[in-house]
Amino acid sequence: LETDCKCIIELFSKPESQRSRLNFIIKDTIEAGRSLPEFVFKHTKREQNCVAHELAQLAKRTRHAAVWHLRFPVCEEQIIAQECNFSSK
Fold this sequence. Notes:
The protein is mainly alpha-helical. Helix content is 44%, strand content 4%.
């Protein structure tokens, strides 16, 4: 799970010591992750996480829920193409 929000990573790294109102989400996420071969929490810079940032902004602008399986919103195509071709030098 990658995020550019350090406080989220901190919440997930020590779930037993959290008193957050989001604690049930943290516990459910960790439990769901146990069914995967590998599940890690990783902080990444926003510049390296443009697609997630833009999807979050899209969610804030719209009033409906949407789920994309094996595809993505057309408005994100250019950013996804750039991120998929990203090379760190």
